[in-house]
């Protein structure tokens, strides 16, 4: 493990991108192992509900094409079932996103506190269960705020995106409530909106395109099977849901970038990382295995 990697330091746009890849390279195995340990259940549950959702769409469209809905009552019953599955799918997707967010940020803060050593599952679990529902609530609130802002105009929603994203590392790194984290997001990003937005956008774009490539075969198979009445449409729907959710592992990348953005902005405002290095330097100078001087 390269102990020269510093989390708490200021970074420009290129450093945020490069150091995100560098951190993942240094922590690839423990990060990946912990992802499936703490997020695996949510990923599989979300994939299962999405598969049921896609299967219902397939069944609905096939039945409509074959004229099986003879009366409006059948259609209303089907729509109620479809709506229920959609709500359950949405809930599990939010739970999954919350789990991935908490896991990555908890891993990073423990990595920092332990002196650049990967944390154990037991250490992660203590933080994970403490922050999970707090972050879950924050995800819902942030989504609602972005949605409301985007209704009036797309620009306010885009402007809020990096500010609201910072609420997650603030809540975990500073053990803060949502209200404080919300205000702190505005304070931290002053004068650095473009750098933060640009770094997060690029990393999310990379993760999104990569995830799309992974899930593309199943998605295309499902669409062609539905439109051209190919066999195996249900299998394709299940495969599409599974691949798209396994690809969520790629979203570790923008979350690492988000954490580095937080450390960079916090360092620029507070200089906490510099003080930590000064204190550590003093400790290292004192801990030289020499006998204490006597006067």
TrEMBL record:
Keyword tags: Membrane, Transmembrane, Transmembrane helix
Domain of life: Bacteria
Spans traversing the lipid bilayer: 35-55, 82-110, 131-152, 158-180, 192-215, 235-265
Name of the molecule in the record: Glycerophosphoryl diester phosphodiesterase family protein
Annotated organism of origin: Mucilaginibacter auburnensis
């Amino acid at each position: 493990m390269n102990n020269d990697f510093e989390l708490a330091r200021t970074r420009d746009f290129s450093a945020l991108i490069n150091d995100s890849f560098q951190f993942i390279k240094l922590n690839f195995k423990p990060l990946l192992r912990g992802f499936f340990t703490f997020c695996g259940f949510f990923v599989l549950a979300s994939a299962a509900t999405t598969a049921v959702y896609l299967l219902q769409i397939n069944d609905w469209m096939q039945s409509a094409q074959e004229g099986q809905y003879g009366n409006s009552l059948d259609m209303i019953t089907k729509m109620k079932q479809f709506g229920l599955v959609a709500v359950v799918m949405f809930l599990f997707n939010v739970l999954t996103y919350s789990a991935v967010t908490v896991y990555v940020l908890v891993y990073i803060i423990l990595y920092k506190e332990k002196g650049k050593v990967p944390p154990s599952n037991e250490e992660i679990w203590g933080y994970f269960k403490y922050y999970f529902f707090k972050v879950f609530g924050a995800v819902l609130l942030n989504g609602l705020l972005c949605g409301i802002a985007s209704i009036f105009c797309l620009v306010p929603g885009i402007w809020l995106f990096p500010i609201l994203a910072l609420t997650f590392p603030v809540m975990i790194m500073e053990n803060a409530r949502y209200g404080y984290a919300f205000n702190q997001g505005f304070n931290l990003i002053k004068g650095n909106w473009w750098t933060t937005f640009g770094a997060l956008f690029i990393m999310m774009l990379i993760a999104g395109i990569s995830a799309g490539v992974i899930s593309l075969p199943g998605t295309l198979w499902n669409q062609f099977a539905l439109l051209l009445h190919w066999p195996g449409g249900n299998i394709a729907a299940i495969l599409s849901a599974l691949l798209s959710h396994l690809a969520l592992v790629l979203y570790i990348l923008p979350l690492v970038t988000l954490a580095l953005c937080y450390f960079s902005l916090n360092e620029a405002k507070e200089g906490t990382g510099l003080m930590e290095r000064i204190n550590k330097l003093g400790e290292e100078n004192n801990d030289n295995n020499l006998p204490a001087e006597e006067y």
